[in-house]
Amino acid sequence: MPTLREVTDYLDELYPPALAESWDSVGLIAGDPEQTVQRIHLALDPTEETVNEAIARNADLLLTHHPLLLKGIHAVTSQTSKGRTLRTAIAEDLAIFNAHTNADRARHGVNDALADALGLTDTRPLVPADELRLEKVVVFVPSESEQALIDALAEAGAGEVGDYSRCAFISTGTGTFIPGESANPTVGTRGAAEQVAESRIEMVYAAPLRRGVLAALRASHPYEEPAYDVLALQPLPTDQGLGRIGTLSTPVSLEEFGVRIANALPAAPVGIRIAGDLEREVRTVAVLGGAGDGHLEDATRAGVDAYVTADLRHHPAGEHLAEGGPALIDAGHWASESVWLPVLADLLREQYADLTVTVSELVTDPWAAVLSR
């Protein structure tokens, strides 16, 4: 059986944390990385109900999309829902892990699952992940310390290139310096010029990892004042990003497409809301699981016929349609994202044949009913 660390490392490969929004919280929330995992339970939300459901199924890990601790808390008591949720999980030795906006952007994530469920083909990102920038650290170190420094930088996330890790380029040369009167040099004497055989080490990393990489550099470097450069690299084209744009094999009316969505997604109390001419032909579609009215302009610029998302507000939606934007379909936050859970379950089963993976049967959409007269 794999350890929790092995499972979370695999999840980080699928959904790199560097893809997450800067405000987001992703990764391991509770649990011992060395504990053994035999059963994983998947749910969209880490609620008291889904934690209890996971415990009832003897799960070792509850894997969710939404984070439990997105905003800071100052106490973990039974007087709050988050406190009760976390206390119960810890008491029952249930680990909790989440992949949020990183799973929104990555392939095999929320938006790929939504696009596939609606029958879209030839998909590409609605908002490409151009902000996922790589940087390179160049550091000079005594040659006898180069391997230890590479290990430390790799542990902090540097040197990850595709399926390869600890990638570094090493060249050698001579470093020279004069320690000042208040210096405490590892090599050399105060006030005297010194020459040292040094290695130049180059390693790339995702820009959000910079703080940890530089902290590891300073902590592991033998010099009192290590010399290093940080270089920003031009981002490469990527098929990762927020949302997806795709094409229907056969165009349908907006009303027919709405019916297709209702049949494809899990049933939720909020149902499906449609804005636009119901007879409008729909062939190209943009999708963005969860709250998406912040990207109405992106959908308009993409020139799609319809935009499928959730949590659309009255005024932005009305203004969008008045300006000639694509038809809008609000499929509900929970329903538009929960289609990802069976996809992730299959990926985990393929990776770990000896694991038991279950998917929550709870509808954690906070809305209970839609009434009309």
From TrEMBL:
Pfam families: DUF34_NIF3 (PF01784)
Name the UniProt record assigns to this protein: GTP cyclohydrolase 1 type 2 homolog
An MF annotation (GO) of this entry: metal ion binding
Family: Belongs to the GTP cyclohydrolase I type 2/NIF3 family.
Signal recorded as keyword: no
Keyword set includes Metal-binding: yes
Origin species: Epidermidibacterium keratini
Source lineage: Bacteria, Bacillati, Actinomycetota, Actinomycetes, Sporichthyales
Keywords linked to the UniProt accession: Metal-binding
